[in-house]
Design goal:
With 183 residues, the protein is of the alpha+beta class. The chain is elongated, with a radius of gyration of 20 Å.
């Protein structure tokens, strides 16, 4: 993991104004064009808004975090609770390890499997459920159907990391592994 550069909280608050999850310029980033009061940065194809601080690119949510709470601790990153990379409201941001951030992600498009944490075990001709948290892999079991394995995955994920995980069959207040939406 690369070490992130430290962001100076006072300097950030001089450069930007935070308003409802967005950053506005307080100072002109480019002396030839007046941008004071306009939305800072640009959106990358991956959906993250970027801003420049001292000639370096930073994700907007990291700058917002640093403006309000200071630098993120070593080994932590700024995570979006709802999985929406464009929702940078303070209430949606939290510190998380990379492991928990991965658990909070929905399934990637184009993925072979139908359910998160479930794969086909060719050697036993059964569906296997497993959950990886950090360096520990929890082998949950083997099942006759993919749905049974997915339910077992969801139950283990709820037990071990309820605040961070997305689920195959979410109930009210939980996030879907398929859409990323909160049910």
């Amino acid at each position: 993991m690369t070490t992130a550069k430290s962001l100076n909280r006072d300097k950030l608050n001089e450069m930007f104004e935070y308003r409802d999850g967005i950053l506005l310029y307080r100072k002109n980033p480019n002396r030839s064009v007046s941008r004071i009061g306009t939305r800072a940065g640009w959106v990358r194809p991956n959906g993250y808004r970027m801003v420049i601080v001292d000639g370096e690119e930073y994700r907007e949510h990291r700058v917002i975090w640093a403006m309000h709470y200071g630098d993120i601790e070593a080994g932590q990153i700024v995570d979006h609770r709802d999985g929406n990379e464009s929702n940078n409201t303070l209430s949606n941001l939290r510190a998380a390890s990379e492991t928990y951030n991965r658990l909070n992600q929905r399934m990637r498009k184009g993925r072979k499997g139908q359910y998160k944490g479930v794969c086909w075990d060719k050697s036993r001709n059964r569906w296997m459920a497993r959950l990886k948290i950090g360096d520990t892999t929890y082998y949950i079991g083997r099942f006759d159907t993919a749905e049974e394995a997915a339910i077992a995955y969801d139950n283990k994920a709820r037990e071990l990391c309820p605040e961070y995980t997305t689920l195959n069959f979410p109930v009210a207040g939980e996030r879907s592994a398929h859409t990323g939406d909160i049910v």
